[in-house]
Design brief:
- The chain has 590 residues and is an alpha/beta fold.
- The protein has 21 helices and twelve strands.
- The protein has four domains: 117 residues, Response regulator (Rossmann fold, 3-Layer(aba) Sandwich), CATH 3.40.50; 143 residues, no CATH class; 83 residues; 102 residues, Helix Hairpins (Orthogonal Bundle).
- The radius of gyration is 31 Å and the shape is globular.
- About 14% of the residues have low confidence.
Length: 590
Amino acid sequence: MDRILLVEDEIGSIAALKRTLGRAGFDVVVATNGADALSIARHDRPLAIVLSGDLQDRSSEELRRSLEAAIRAPVILIGGAPGSREPQLARPVDGALLVDRLRDALSAPRDAPEPTPATRPHADGAAALAARRALLAARGQAERAAREKAEAAAKAARDRQQELQAERATGPGGAPPQQPEESSLATELFGDLSAAEDEPAPPSIEPPAPGLPSPEIPPKERAPAEIASAAPRSADASRQTPATKPPVPARGSVEELEAARLLAVCHRSGWSGSLAIREGATTRRLFWDSGRVCGATSNSADDRLENLAYRRGLLTREQQRQVRAEGLGGGRRAALTLVERAYLKPAELFPLVQERVEEIAYACCGCLRGEYELSEETVPTDERVALARSPLSLLTEGIRRKYRMERLVDALGGPATLLRPVEEAAPPISEFGLTAQERRLAAAVDGVRNVEELLFETGLDPLAGLQIFHALCLGGHLEIAVRGLAAELSHELDAVIDAGRVAEKLRQAREASYFDVLGIDPSATRYEVDQAYGRLARELDPLRFEPIEEPTLRAQLEEIQRVLAEAKDVLSDDTLRLQYARHRRSDRSL
């Protein structure tokens, strides 16, 4: 399987391009910035490179020159500036055309320059159509043959497992049954897991003297069917490089140092070890290798692999119950078992294992209380997995999923808070996995306009905007220059405003018309009446005002709710509304 390096920092484009190239039979490795792209190019030696022409952290021309100095591989530029010497594809990218360009580049001689589209012979329309149909038919036959081969391998693995179970059940002399050898499918997918720790470390390469070219690093030999990770791995992935401990206590309270901040600290310090988050009886542990997440474990039933697969619609209820009863664990071996039993497709195995690690990281970000512990414990061999997302992108997504308005206001302050960019050693914005609109919001921060002004100018939802601001502050890209109104004072002010609104609505309920109580015009339709009632009933629900310590407040709210219901019943009925209008006119005439 030909390995392709995709260099792109737009999340939506990454997903679409990776899916297109994967279906075409390419093994896609993703880099979201220039540093990761160079690291992957040197260690994984891709056969071709698909390069975005509008990266955030550096120019495509500069990155292309650096990649050419590292390896000899054809470059396909997408969305590049006019006049670039690489073959270009305009956005939105035509997937079929991209695949054809890659196949042409890979089939060309390595020492010959890639022909430009202008120098290629132009076949007539009928011949080109016939050739394309023949190519599609050949690809279809190859895909069918691959599927048949995978099905045969899965069937052979199941038959072998049944034979081993039968031998174990009827073993001679009552001897304890021997553990069956790992199936050929498992070896094909991940290699020999037990031998990973015994693999010798590669020889170190001394840096060249100034002015001398870098030595050529030979590509690492790989098993034919090895599944490559979607993120860069170190040259010796089975061992973690020692790193300085993060500048925080080894143990502490999550209430004092929030879990999302711990993720940022472990990443920025290049931590290699584990971060455990304990909340009650639940313990989740993230493993780190040089500042990147490389695995995760959890004793929570929600984080088990079979439960995640069931929530994603990949397992039936009966399959989930069977796997849960057997207690297969939550790592790669459990996923392999699901593939061997034909519960999962082989292509679904690695994304599911990746997603489980990401979900555990998001759950850690949502932890509000408990304890954390940093240790030098290394990742178990069968739990190691590389992630496409950077740790700062995991942090941002965790805040999106788990943080609510009250928590964000406590952390950032009120609307008058001033934020400013961090001048030195700030991580690039591309590591946070932001959308285009969120990037515009981050770029607008200048230390002059406050949070309220920034949200109004960009049009982003206030909750989403505060989530992005908090993620950028935790990640070290922004910092608070002047904090706005303190959270405690803000809560007190909110209580005063709410009490005043309740008093005014109670006055309306006792003195004003039903139209004024619902806040609608006398010509309002039945739909408008229902909408107004639903909104006010939610806003004036007594449960929302429980934090306000006012003895008579609940009775006032219940009286308002009764009048709101009466107004809805009367104004929704045409006959009752007409009678009510006549009664109101007669009262005003007296």
